[in-house]
Design a protein that fits this description.
The chain is mainly alpha-helical. It has one domain: Up-down Bundle (Fumarate Reductase Cytochrome B subunit), CATH 1.20.950. The chain is built from 5 helices and 4 strands. The strands form 2 sheets. Strands 1-2 form a two-stranded parallel sheet. β3 and β4 form a beta hairpin. The two termini are 18 Å apart.
Length: 180
Amino acid sequence: MQTQNFTTTAVIMHWLIAVSIFFLFISSWWMLALPFPSIDFKYRVFPFQLHKNLGITIVFMLIILLYVRLRYRPTPVFSAGERPLLLRLAFLDHVILYILIFTCCISGYMSSSYSGWSTTLWWVLELPHWGYEDEELNMFYSDIHLWTCWALLAFVSVHVGGALYHAFRNDGFVRRMLRL
């Protein structure tokens, strides 16, 4: 089944994921600057739990987005002079974005799992620890998390650049993602 525009669900998931990723980048710099928890400083726990909750939620939103995008593919928009190479690069950018988002979220959860700190999803559901407190594995997954997040930031920049390119060309690509 093909439609002219993206489905409402795909548009909503796209923008929720985009805003959530932006929030996670901004909040991570702030929360890492907070002093380590102690008897006097317990307020660092809340931002970390919020960060982990949002990361885990993004995985579920990404699964919904991928399902909707694969199930209800919009018809391709071809503008005059659109180069096939650009279409392939856009497809590749999306695939890499999805992989990086998933890897960022899972590596963050795994790092947390080996940190000794528990994760309670939205302060309701206690998630299992996949490991035990292990500083080496915590740092391993933390490094993966850090570098995939930087790579994600780079590919998001490419994605935004591509959207601006199409917005200035006024070729219909951007209107499909903005229209609900």
